[in-house]
């Protein structure tokens, strides 16, 4: 079979010399299509090293350390020879990678001539154990073992010792770019001669990228007007596409052309899948041949069973398919959808069913799998799939209508959700009998979602009860009902938080955590833990922080640190730090929360965010910004059925900000609304007492506060501290120093266990607090801390143990550790370090284990105590 005449391989003499002179470790790091593999293979041929090279192609997303080392040892044995003194490595359940490395180092110490170990596509090696073991091998490399590593990303191994010793050779993308002379040779190999101006233009357009130059060379071969082609290659994409299709695709054999066109609808293709689309066998052989001949087909695994097409080439193929065989496209998508579904790739199956306009098939797949996608943290994927259905797609399909209703709740379109739910309920009898139980469960869950989002707490409780009370599957099994029950517990728990029934909320959410763990649903677990943190915030800031950090650690470990699922935990941390006077930290948390919280989609969490922001603004003296934050919170509460519950805290704090701004009429108007919504609540009494104090009416303030202080009006510890401080301010206005001192002491007693500082900073009882003598209180140290914060310092760091580590952190772990004090998510740290998120998560897991901590903040404090991190630059 002849595919087309590919450009010949250019002998890159300078790079060959660099590779030949390298005696230790060589790293070739550059993007895909930069010619890394071609360079190595041509150098091996040039240097006649074929019989002394162990070539290991790392499998795609390789996470199995044993499989990796089996390949390494097997290839090394082949390179050394059949009588190799390197012992064969057999698979074993008790694999010890460290022992394998020790054996390789020991046995290769006997080499008397060089062997080259090439590890191609190192970026695909995702096993942290294997990477650490490889790092150990490189650090203690036998004298005659030379190692070459290729990667699309920066190689993050501890190679600094080799660099300092002059044993590290590094080749990067800039080194791999073709020069004008090399581009000329490449074109000449394809029979192309270009004037200097055209060559310079082509080199400029491709920026020396090898794959781009090869594409141009293939198209230019035999072209009657090469200069015109180059000019148009630098012009419109459509013109380029027309030329490349004509000059590249049409030169393939009919068999190859059919394969390429019919599989161009896929993002990745295997031989079996290609056979299904082409309608004949032998596709894998043809794909492998195309790859071997550099026809823009790239294998994705070492076994060369999965392939992708260069993105530009794939675009051109799809363009030509639409031009040449438009009638074949729907059938190709139908076949692809069936194949993906049979092999368990649901999202791919749905997308191809939609592309084929096989709406019943796509609807069935979405209805069956959308909940599982959400539970896997892929709500955005589901939303994108729903967006590709026609506008009237749900009209005749109750299952799809139910999914559309859930999607409408997810994006905050409540009127649409009502309409879709009504449609689903009206046509429920059309659901096949075998799918009716699932449909009923999901319909109930969607009603619960909608009621929660609307703030209709009674309706939410009613919708949740059948789901929570449903019988569990047999012992040891986890079914749809358990997943739905865990979701129902989450939704109902958040409803009870907003209702102020915190004990009930904690009970429900703890059950939700247990079920989520049992079912292996970390996405649900993160949400339950985050809302548990919010529930705990009014009772115990310490417990709230612990739960929030646990939720955030789990979210980051799964790559959801930047997902809205992490929002409750981040809001909780910002809230806790605000209450505890850690205003710089709170500023960072709340800035991050603003990126995560979509208030119109999650009004209750959005309200808590606005309350925390406003409290922080008051502490910073930004009363205008505080008032606006509280107004936003009040507006959110107005959109909900239970506005009397959710607007009250925002209106109470808004009154406080307006009093500080001197806007007495606005404050009076807000107080009037507050009294109408909750005339006897602790919130209303605190707001009225603040107003009376601002008008020098201390006796009226004392009368308002008395029922809160004696417990006849229920309140939470956080607000009791404020109540005692307002009481102290009232007594101060009455010149009753003893009573004021007693109230300050009581406030300190309530506040110290949770290091509650915010009320002391913003209180009108500042004079009484300042007058409180540290030597006459049981809370002297805490009082000093309050005064430091009021003066602009940060609270002191809590002491941590500084016992020496049992095991040192690796270089990779230290690099990750240095980013932990920042507010960067796991994904952000990965981008900063050019690592995968999985690698960063693994480093963090090892860091926590070695430091004997469980949370990110604990790791930072422990590392600072050990001198692994510099002390905080904030005032202490």
Outline the structure in words.
The chain is mainly α. Among the domains are: 13-176, 3-Layer(aba) Sandwich (Rossmann fold), CATH 3.40.50.300; 180-235, no CATH class; 455-570, Serine Threonine Protein Phosphatase 5, Tetratricopeptide repeat; 571-790, Tetratricopeptide repeat domain (Serine Threonine Protein Phosphatase 5, Tetratricopeptide repeat), CATH 1.25.40; 811-865, Arc Repressor Mutant, subunit A. Helix content is 63%, strand content 4%. It has 45 helices and 8 strands. The chain has a 5-stranded parallel beta sheet. Strands 6-8-7 form a 3-stranded antiparallel beta sheet. The radius of gyration is 33 Å and the shape is globular. The relative contact order is 0.05. The model is unreliable at 1-6, 234-240, 473-479, 798-802 and 870-876 (pLDDT under 50).
């Amino acid at each position: 079979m002849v595919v087309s005449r590919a450009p010949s391989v250019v002998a890159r003499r300078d790079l060959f010399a660099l590779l030949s002179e390298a005696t230790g470790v060589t790293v070739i790091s550059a993007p895909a299509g930069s010619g890394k593999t071609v360079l190595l293979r041509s150098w091996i041929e040039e240097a006649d090293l074929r019989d002394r090279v162990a070539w290991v192609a790392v499998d795609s997303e390789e996470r199995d350390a044993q499989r990796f080392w089996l390949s390494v040892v097997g290839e090394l044995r082949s390179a050394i020879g059949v009588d190799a003194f390197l012992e064969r490595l057999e698979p074993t359940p008790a694999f010890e990678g460290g022992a394998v490395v020790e054996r390789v180092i020991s046995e290769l110490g006997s080499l008397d001539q060089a062997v080259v170990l090439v590890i191609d596509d190192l970026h695909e090696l995702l096993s942290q154990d294997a990477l650490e073991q490889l790092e150990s091998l490189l650090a203690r490399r036998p004298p005659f073992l030379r190692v070459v590593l290729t990667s699309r990303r920066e190689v993050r191994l501890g190679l600094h010792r080799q660099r300092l010793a002059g044993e590290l050779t590094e080749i990067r993308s800039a080194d791999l770019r073709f020069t004008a002379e090399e581009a000329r040779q490449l074109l000449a190999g394809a029979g192309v001669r270009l004037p200097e101006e055209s060559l310079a233009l082509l080199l400029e357009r491709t920026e020396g990228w090898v794959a781009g130059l090869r594409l141009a060379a293939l198209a230019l071969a035999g072209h009657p007007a090469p200069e015109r082609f180059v000019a148009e290659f630098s012009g419109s994409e459509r013109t380029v596409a027309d030329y490349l299709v004509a000059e590249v695709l049409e030169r393939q054999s009919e068999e190859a052309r059919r394969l390429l066109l019919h599989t161009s609808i896929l993002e990745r293709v295997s031989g079996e899948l290609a056979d299904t689309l082409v309608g004949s066998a032998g596709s894998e052989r043809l794909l492998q041949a195309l790859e071997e001949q550099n026809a823009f087909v790239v294998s994705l695994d070492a076994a060369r069973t999965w392939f992708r097409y260069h993105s530009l080439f794939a675009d051109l193929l799809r363009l030509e398919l639409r031009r040449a065989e438009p009638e074949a496209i729907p059938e190709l998508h139908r076949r692809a959808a069936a194949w993906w579904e049979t092999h368990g790739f649901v999202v791919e199956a749905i997308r191809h069913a939609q592309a084929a306009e096989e709406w019943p098939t796509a609807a069935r797949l979405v209805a069956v799998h959308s909940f599982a996608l959400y539970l896997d943290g892929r709500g955005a994927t589901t939303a994108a799939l729903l967006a590709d259905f026609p506008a009237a797609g749900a009209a005749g399909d109750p299952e799809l209508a139910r999914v559309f209703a859930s999607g409408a709740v997810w994006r905050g379109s409540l009127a649409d959700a009502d309409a879709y739910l009504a449609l689903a309920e009206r046509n429920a009898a059309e659901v096949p009998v075998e799918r009716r139980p699932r449909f009923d469960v999901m319909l109930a869950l969607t009603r619960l979602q909608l009621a929660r989002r609307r703030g209709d707490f009674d309706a939410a409780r009613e919708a949740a009860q059948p789901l929570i009370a449903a019988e569990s599957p047999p012992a040891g099994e986890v079914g749809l009902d358990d997943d739905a029950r865990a979701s129902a517990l989450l939704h109902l728990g958040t409803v009870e938080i907003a209702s102020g029934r915190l004990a009930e909320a904690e009970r429900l959410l703890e059950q939700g955590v247990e079920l989520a763990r049992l079912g292996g649903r970390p996405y649900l677990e993160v949400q339950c833990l985050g809302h548990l943190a919010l529930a705990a915030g009014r009772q115990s800031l310490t417990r709230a922080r612990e739960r929030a950090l646990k939720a955030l650690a789990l979210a980051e470990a799964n790559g959801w640190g930047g997902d809205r699922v992490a929002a409750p935990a981040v809001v909780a941390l910002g809230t806790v730090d605000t209450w505890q006077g850690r205003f710089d930290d709170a500023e960072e948390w709340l800035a991050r929360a603003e990126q995560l919280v979509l208030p119109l989609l999650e009004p209750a969490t959005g309200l808590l965010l606005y309350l925390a922001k406003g409290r922080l603004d008051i502490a910073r003296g930004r009363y205008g910004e505080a008032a606006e934050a509280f107004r936003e919170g009040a507006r959110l509460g107005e959109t909900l059925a239970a506005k009397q519950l959710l607007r009250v805290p925002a209106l109470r704090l808004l009154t406080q900000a307006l009093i500080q701004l001197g806007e007495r009429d606005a404050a009076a108007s807000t107080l009037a609304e507050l009294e109408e919504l909750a005339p006897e609540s602790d919130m209303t009494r605190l707001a009225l007492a603040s107003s009376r104090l601002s008008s020098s009416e201390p006796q009226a303030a004392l009368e308002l506060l008395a029922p809160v202080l004696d417990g006849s009006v229920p309140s939470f510890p956080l607000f009791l501290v404020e109540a005692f401080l307002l009481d102290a301010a009232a007594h101060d206005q009455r010149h009753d120093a003893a009573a004021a001192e007693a109230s300050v002491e009581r406030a300190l007693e309530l506040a110290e266990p949770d290091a509650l500082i915010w009320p002391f900073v913003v209180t009108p009882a500042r004079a009484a607090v300042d007058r409180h003598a540290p030597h006459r209180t049981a809370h002297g140290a805490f009082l000093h801390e309050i005064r430091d914060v009021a003066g602009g310092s940060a609270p002191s760091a809590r002491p941590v143990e500084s016992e020496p580590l049992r095991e040192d952190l690796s270089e990779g772990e230290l690099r990750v550790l240095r980013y932990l004090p920042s507010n960067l998510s796991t994904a952000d740290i990965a981008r900063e370090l050019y690592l995968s998120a999985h690698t960063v998560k693994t480093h963090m897991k090892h860091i926590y284990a070695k430091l004997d901590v469980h949370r990110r903040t604990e790791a930072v404090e422990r590392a600072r105590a050990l001198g692994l991190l510099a002390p905080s630059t904030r005032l202490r």
